[in-house]
């Protein structure tokens, strides 16, 4: 969400001698709540987002896995906590 756990891991990697600022960091699902920008402000440069949560909700609706009402509810919930649009 806000990148807080990445800050914990960044410190641990550095303590263990890993070049944490030069590692690739993969975010499987970004909730778009500020975590990516916070990671960049921590000095983490190589951040790669695989999926955005809003895109997954949309795709589930298009594939018929969720009905449109469910998609709308999920999208509203995500957007109510979203920092980045």
Overview of this protein structure:
The chain is α+β, with helices and mostly antiparallel strands. It has helices at residues 4-15, 35-41, 53-62, 68-80, and strands at residues 24-30, 46-52. Strands 1-2 form a two-stranded parallel sheet. Strand 1, helix 2 and strand 2 (46-52) form a beta-alpha-beta unit. Helix 3 packs antiparallel against helix 4. The radius of gyration is 16 Å and the shape is elongated.
Give a quick precis of the structure.
Helix content is 49%, strand content 16%. The protein has helices at 4-15, 35-41, 53-62, 68-80, and strands at residues 24-30, 46-52. Helix 3 packs antiparallel against helix 4.
User: Given the structure, what is the number of helices?
Assistant: 4
Q: Can you tell me the residue ranges where pLDDT is under 50 for at least 5 consecutive residues? A: none
Percentage of residues assigned to helices: 40-55%
Which H/E pattern describes the elements? Answer: HEHEHH
Number of strands: 2
Average pLDDT for all residues: 87
β-strand percent reads 15-25%
For the record, give the distance between the C-alpha atoms at the N and C termini, rounded to a whole number. Answer: 14 Å
Summing up helix and strand content along with how strands pair, one would put the structural category as alpha+beta
Q: What would you call the shape?
A: elongated
Strand arrangement within the widest β-sheet reads 1-2
Q: What summary fits the major beta sheet?
A: 2 strands, parallel
Rg of Cα set: 16 Å
């Amino acid at each position: 969400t806000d990148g807080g756990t990445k800050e914990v891991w960044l410190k641990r990697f550095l303590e263990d001698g890993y070049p944490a600022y030069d590692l690739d960091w993969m975010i499987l699902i970004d909730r778009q709540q500020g975590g990516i920008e916070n990671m960049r402000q921590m000095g983490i440069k190589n951040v790669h987002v695989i999926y955005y949560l809003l895109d997954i909700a949309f795709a589930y609706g298009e594939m018929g896995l969720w009905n449109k009402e469910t998609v709308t509810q999920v999208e509203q919930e995500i957007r109510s906590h979203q920092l980045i649009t």
